[in-house]
Each structure stands twice: as C-alpha cells, then as structure tokens.
Amino acid sequence: MTTPIALRLRDVVKTYPGVVALKRVSFDVRAGEVHAVVGENGAGKSTLMGVACGATAADSGLVEIGGEPLRRPSPALAQKLGIAVVFQHASVLDDLTVAENLLYAAGRGRRPGRRAAAWVREHLAAVGASAKPTDRVADLTVAQRQLVEIARALASDAKVLVLDEPTESLTGAETELLFERLRGLRAAGTGIVYISHRFGEVRRIADRITVLRDGESRGTFAADEVSEDDVVTLIVGRKVEQVFPPKAAAADRGPALLTASGLTGAGFRDVDLEVRAGEIVGMAGVEGNGQRQALRALGGVVPHTGHLQVRGEKRGRGGPGAAIDAGVVYLPADRHEEGTFLPLTVRENLSGLRHRALSRWGVLNRRREAALARETASALRVRTPSVETPVSSLSGGNQQKVVIGRSLAAEPTVLLADEPTRGVDVGARAEIYGALRRFAADGHGVAVVSADAIELAGLCDRVLVFSRGRIVRELAGDELSERSITSAAITATGEHSAVRLPRTLPAVLRGDQLPGAVLALLIVALAVYTGARNSLFLGERSLFNLLLLAAILGFVALGELTALLIGSIDLSVGPLIGLTVVIVSFFADGSKGMGGLAVGVLVALAAGAAVGVLNTGLIRGVRLPPVVATLVTFILLQGVSLYLRPTPGGYLDPNVTATLQRRVGTLPGVLVGMLVLAVGAELVLRRTRSGVALRAMGSDETRARQVGVPVTRTVLAAHVLCSLAAVLAGVVLATVVGVGDPNVGSNYTLTAIAAVVLGGASIFGGRGSYLGAALGAVLLQEITSATSFLRLPEAWQEWLPGLLILSGAAIFSQRGRRRGLTAAG
C-alpha cells in the first residue's frame, strides 16, 4: 500500500537581490513520518518552509498540502489546507494573551467555545508550559514563548507540522515532552518536518533526512543509514575536524578582569564570581534559576545591587552604556529583539559599538567603518552579498554572527555571551567557538550562558551551576563534563521553576484598563475641586455643554484608537469633521428638517467610507507611511471643504439641533450613545476574532500574517471605521456650531490622539482601551472647561493635558520596562 504524501514541493525556485535562495528544490513528506531538513545557515531551509506554509512567494514551483495545491502564497490558505508551523523566531504575538494566541490560530471547527480556558490549559500542559492562559505573551521568557508557539501548532490537528529549530530555547525535560507529542502525532498519520542544527535530536526523532546546501538538495537519506560525519560533510561541503578548540592551561590564565560580590537582583541573589584573563567561564542551571538574569546584570541590562570591579576598579551601577565604557559588552540571546538593528546594513551593525573610535568630531569615517565591517565579516564567515546588505535579509545564523562580530569588534575586556550559538549550524558553531577561544587567549575574559550542557563542557574552562538564584557548585578540570553539569543542576534544583517578580496589583490594574481607572479618578477629582471653587461648574447647563463637547471628542478618539491599534494613525480626521459639518449644512438647513438631515448623514457617511478607502490605498497600495498618507488626505479634504464653503454658511434647522441634542435624563443623548459605542467596541476588541486581529496587526504585522490575519482587510476596516467615527463627531458638531464652517474640525486631530494616549494606548499599536479613550476625551474636555471656571490663563488648556500625557507615558513605560526585565530572565 502506498503511503500518502502529506506535503509535496516540486522544482521550487526563490531568488533575492544578489542571492539564489532555492534552486529547483523538490521535497516530499509522507504522512506519518518525521522528515528532518538540515543544512548550514543560509542553505535555504527556512525559505523552503516559508514557501510551503505560504509566508514566502516562490518565483516558480509547485506546493501541495494533503494533495491539494496551494494556489497562491497565503498563510491563511495554507493553514486551511492543513499546515501548521513552529517558526524559528516565535511568531506568537506579544500584545495578546496566551489564550488569544492559541484560540485565534485554531480553525473554525476546532475552537472550543465555552471551555476555551480549559482547552488552552490542556494544550499548554501537554508541552510543559508554565504560562497561564491570561498571561500576556510580552511578559513571558523566550523559552516560555517558544512553548506557547509549540502548543499553538500542536493544537491545530494539522496534516503537516513544520518545526523550525523548536528546541533552541527549551530545557532537556521540555524537549522530551515535545518528542513524546511528536511520536504520538506521527503514529496518528501527521507528516512532520523537523529543522534542526542538533544532529543528536535529528537521529532520535527523524525517519528520513534531507540535506540542503547553497539552496540545493544534496540528497534524502534514511536516518539510520547515515552517520553524523556523513551528514556534516554533506552540510558543510568539507570535513569539520574539531568542534571545540583546545582549552587554555590553568597556568596560562591571568588576573581577574571582572569580579562580582553580593550581586543581587530579580531572580538571583548573593552571587560571587570572577572571570580571569584567558578563560571562558560558563553559567549553567535549569532555565529560570538566575544564571541568565545574573549575566544581564553583569552587563548593566537589569537593575541590581552588589559590587562589581573591572580590572580591579569599581564599576558603577549604570546601564549597558556604562558597562561598555568600563570594558564589559553583553551579547544578548534574542538577536531580533535586542541583538541586531534589522533595517540597517551589515556595516552599520558591525560598527555599532566602535563609533567613538571610527569618528572624528562626531562624523563617522565611512572608509574605516567599511574596512572594519569587511574584516569582521570575513573572520566570522558571514554569508552576505556585501556589507551594505540589510541584516534583515540574512539568515538567522548569519544574523547571529553579525551580533557576535559587533561584540568582538568592540574589543571589550570581558565579553558576556548569552546563547552565542543559538540557531547556528555545526560548521558555524565551530567557527564561533574558535573565535571565542582566540579572544580569550588574547588576554580577555568570556562568560557564557547556554542551555546546552555539551557546549558548556566542551567550550568552558570553568562552569558555575545556578539553583534558585545562587551559585551552588563550580566545576573545572576533570570534573567538568556534560553529565556533571546536568547532574549538579538537577540534584540542586529538584524541579524546574521559573523565578518571577511578585505581582501586587489585581489583574484588571495590570492590563489595559489601568489608565482608564486612573482617568476616572482624575475626572471625579477635578470635578469636585472645580465645583468647590466655582459652584457654576457643576450646574446643569454647564455640565450638559461639557459632556456634549466631550461626546464629540469621544467619537473621534474611538476612531483614532482603531487606527492606532493596528499600528497606524489618521491625521485626516479633523478636516473630515469639517467636511461633514459642511455636507450637513447643505442638507439640514432651512426647513428641510430631519429628512434632510438623514440624507446629509448618509452622504457624509459615504464620504467618510471613501476617505477610509483612500487612506488604505495610499498606505497599502502606494506604500506611503500612515503619517504621510493621511496628511495628504488632510490637505485634500481641507481643500474640498473650502471649495464647497469658502465662507461659513447654511444655517441648520433648529429642530435638527434640538433633536440631536436631546437629553437622556440629565445627560446628552449623544454622550450616552458614545459610551455605549465604547463599551460595545471594547467587548469586540477583547472577545471576538476581529478584535484580536486588530491587536495582532499592531503587535507585529509579519507575525499576524503568519497566523492567518487578513492584514490588508484589517487595515481597510480600521481606517474606514476611523473615518466613520469622525463623521459621527462631525454630525453632532454641526448642531453645536449651527452653520457650515469648513475650519471647525481642525483642532480635533491632535486632541483626539492625546485622548487616546491618555487612555493608555500604545502609539506603536497592539494595546489600548476604547473605554480609556472615551474617558480620556471626557477628561480633556473637562480640563478645557475647568480652566475657564477656575479663571486660569488660557495657556493652561494646553499645559495641563500636556503634563498629564507626559506623566501617563512615563508611568506606563516604566510598567512596560519592568515587564520586559522580568521576561528577559
């Protein structure tokens, strides 16, 4: 009986400027097999799988998933056909919760409905993830994010499962759990593609192995018929004689270069250590036991107490800049988030820590900078068309070499390397090990954190084993081996437990609702204070007018937040409000009454929808930045309004004004409508796939596309909704001004953005609250009114909101910074 093919790729070709990534590669994965793909960094492994899952458009070739052709490059379409991917760099979305990440990726037939929380917990437990469904992914460690990514893929019940370096951040126990799940999926008939640089894992889990080199297939082999040496020779194209270079003799080591005593911080305490000239010191332990946090503290990345000395001189507690000035350079584990400047060139990345030496009077010497970059890239064999190539276009392993090269080029006294070979192939690993050993032999010191006990045993002269934030054992000489490192870590720790900072705030105050709660308190406090100073402030008429104007600003803020959530912005809302007032003035003037108003509103809504479409076309079609695109629309709308109404005219029917300013109790009806809209939008944002798609887009567009978010459709919906909200504001404003004035909405653009920021939205996208935006609008309007009743200079109408925005940004950025520091451990 013929085994069905789960994934078939035929004659796939993919080229980039100056690089042929794939050269007519053909590749099959049978149902019920684990098919490993191995090769050097830049060999084409991730590109090939990107083509398979629809994330990368091939120049030519065929892709079939479960016997069905993938007719166009689309991650969403590929997922429907039955493929799931664990990417090398986790594609989980930072601004979503763990549960939202898992549930959004689940197909329609697999969504668990009311038992969603239990479903998420089951899949997290299956891979040994300690994260909770309600945790925001941004708060998790790199290893926890990887486990969430794996849990999401395994929960999809896919026909084909692709895993790209899935164990790079995992402990041994977590890797064993993963392998157990993979064996179960293989037995159930799933085709599994396993990409890894770790040949020991490949031999354990794979049925067949395909080798890629330079974008071409070098053959497919049964896993039990080839040796590690055979595969390495095929991968590299040459013999790799020795992976680990000879270690330095104890007598060759010099004085202490870096000394720490009583080093204490989040996740580690009372750490005493020294790094001597000529040696490489390893820092080991079960993940989450403080070794990684302590290394970051040595590099000035996280706050700490204790005493540090470099070459016998006391080092202050400044940040990474102070550490670099003292001769200590930290090489981060996460090259994307902390290591590389992805949009910049190889040259600019490699010279990043040498600007002072390469410049005169603040001007960089481009010739010397390029020479340094070429020399460093050559020494580490960075595969790049030129040093002017953007780092973002390099393979993951070559990006890692760039990070290492930049750190070594700085010529530090001590190099602190966190997972220096993560995502690097076997040949490149040997080159990196050699570079680190040569660096140490030149009289420098190196400290290394790695989850790979074999790496630590082979590379390091001494290894310090951490448990529960303390050093519990030092291994050196004949005592230093993979077995002794693993044994010391396990017997000292007992079990794997992540170290976290205690959380003291209730969950509701840790999330996006905190700014809204603060704003509500400020609104009440300002009302009480101003009312006490001037009783007219809380009078019925004064309060009604305040809330009516707040409702107008609130509508604009709700729309602006929708644009900000996807990482965009809309500067055209002010002129669109003015255009709406002008349109309404043509249809609702004189005695035309409510019928005329209804027609005017429909025309204005059509115009608003057209503006949203125009903004989307300029952003997605013409590829203008949102600020530029919406500024173009701003100017266009301003011109149209002035053409229609060169001077104010077209007085509104008083009956129309009275109708739209009708009260609900003592409140303006439009305020109630705005608040109802805010509550409804908040529910959509938190509890529907459309809301998750908005936040996913703002969190990271590339990752959102990978998990199937229809990005262009989401951008279109966000900008159309933003424009329609501005039209609603314009309709209400028309009843306030009572005349068609084309300039009446110009001040609302920046004020609405201020309200949204006050409400806690991130200007980079992904986070925000509609209730917070509505309350921000109310507070800003209240400040404007209060300054008059308190008889303050008019300038305070600008100063007070500005001070509030600065204060809020400072507070919430600190909260984000603390989360990042916790997660980094």
Counting DSSP H or I runs of 4 or more residues, the number of helices is 32
Strand content: 15-25%
Average pLDDT reading: 85
Total number of β-strand segments?
Answer: 24
Tertiary shape: globular
Strand order of the largest sheet: 6-7-8-3-9-10
Radius of gyration: 30 Å
**CATH architecture assignment of the largest domain:** Orthogonal Bundle
CATH structural class of the largest domain:
Mainly Alpha
- Ranges where pLDDT stays below 50 over 5 or more residues in a row are 493-509, 813-825
Largest sheet: 6 strands, mixed
Helix content: 40-55%
Number of domains: 3
What's the CATH topology label of the largest domain?
ABC transporter involved in vitamin B12 uptake, BtuC
Question: Pairing-aware structural class of the strands and helices?
Answer: alpha/beta
Terminal-residue CA separation: 51 Å
Description:
The chain has 825 residues and is an alpha/beta fold. The protein has three domains: 5-236, P-loop containing nucleotide triphosphate hydrolases (Rossmann fold, 3-Layer(aba) Sandwich); 244-327 and 415-497, P-loop containing nucleotide triphosphate hydrolases (Rossmann fold, 3-Layer(aba) Sandwich), CATH 3.40.50; 507-812, ABC transporter involved in vitamin B12 uptake, BtuC (Orthogonal Bundle), CATH 1.10.3470. Helices cover 50% and strands 16% of the residues. It has 32 helices and 24 strands. It has a six-stranded mixed sheet with strand order 6-7-8-3-9-10, with helices on both faces. The two termini are 51 Å apart.
